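User: what does the whole thing look like in 3D?
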Amino acid sequence: MQKTVLNEEHRRRGARMVDFAGWDMPLHYGSQIEEHHAVRRDAGIFDVSHMCAVDVRGDDARAFLRRLLANNVDRLQLPGKALYSTMLNEAGGVIDDLIVYHLAEHDFRVVINAATAANDLRWMAARRDEWGLAATIDARREGPGALAMIAVQGPRARQKVWQALPASEPACGGLQPFFAVGVGEHLIARTGYTGEDGYEITLPAEQAVGLWNRLADAGAQPCGLGARDTLRLEAGMNLYGQDMDERVSPLDAGLAWTVDLAAPRDFVGKAALLAKPQQHRFLGLLLGERGVLRAHQQVDSAHGPGEVTSGSFSPTLQRSIALARLPLAATVGDSVQVHVRDRLLAARVVKPCFVRNGSILV
Amino acid sequence: MNIPTDRKYTRSHEWVRLEADGTISVGITDHAQELLGDLVFIELPEPGRELAAEQEAAVVESVKAAADVYAPLAGSVVENNAVLVDSPELVNQDAYSAWLFRMRPAAAADLDGLLDAAAYQEIVAAA
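Assistant: Here's the predicted 3D structure for the full assembly of 489 residues, as structure tokens:
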């Protein structure tokens, strides 16, 4: 089992640990629901060092990413700007979803998922070689130069960071959402996976325990993967491996907004997406009854069957919510039924963003 | 591991306590609640319901998973702990106080067939 540099710190704080894609990670430190509320109401910290930061550098770095990713890195012109994208196979299936940061003209940082990292890195190197482009691909998770990542999320997350890293406030106090800035050896990005304000901080692995403890001392609640999942679900954010994978088109996973089909550039999977337009709508479900929606449950709609791709109990709404792949004709406001264990429960189709910045949107 | 010796246990992680009136109280063990994590819904059996041993009696559902709670022995339900329906977190807070339902056993001697604390401890340790 692989461990992040914060592993002992999680155990010292009484975390219940779980195997996540071969990584020994905290599920919660007592109550995942309390951790969830801490992020919606104040601030929480997450160890996301199992994710893999990859530096893509060189004269052809931009040309490489332009052809590799479904979103268009030409949208990244200002230094520090971040872009969410999928990386597709030739059939238009999603190999991974990621964020790419534009650090300098020939210097990009791509953050990929833990479970897919090894496969992604092989794919990226193979495409670069096939295209004969001058770009280095340097994974920064292990060995010398290894990086750790801490997400600090919540309405008071930024203040906690400024308290824990006093030198950071002048540099990142004015940072706009989806921008990053280097502060010494830290890269501080105003991004996240919770639907709240906050930062994701990438830093040398050996400094992670110190920052983690300073943030906790500043009052940020350590949060595990359990709260991370219910927070991202309420925010309507996809989880790779659950809401989409190599067999699913981004157009069928609610990610059409991240796919740039308009620009004349070619990218891997473009031809497949043009040949096979959207087949499903990806929408939210709000359960009207007691019970919990969970992945793979069947949905019966007036327009045909669908499937829950992610479901859980929403601590903010105090009822169950889900993301679901539904027939193309399904629409917000529809009533559907979901097969929950041995019963059929009524649910309403909603926009797949349930909570944003502490407010309920459905 | 918190396993009180004043009651019996099942392999499916229920605890069973014999009350003074000859009924039994049934709950889930601390180990079970810890595995499940934060509970969010509980479904309880109605009083009067006749249950066979190992029949599904209640459902405890956490953020992570749903789990059936089984009747530890044959009998009829005499009462359920309705306060848990609105406050399922009480099971997380103190699993051995938060009984789910009470039963009148069909045969009191069936209780002898359940595990004692030491035997249940072994099962948890082996898991």
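In plain terms: The mean pLDDT of chain A is 97. The two ends of chain A are 40 Å apart (CA to CA).
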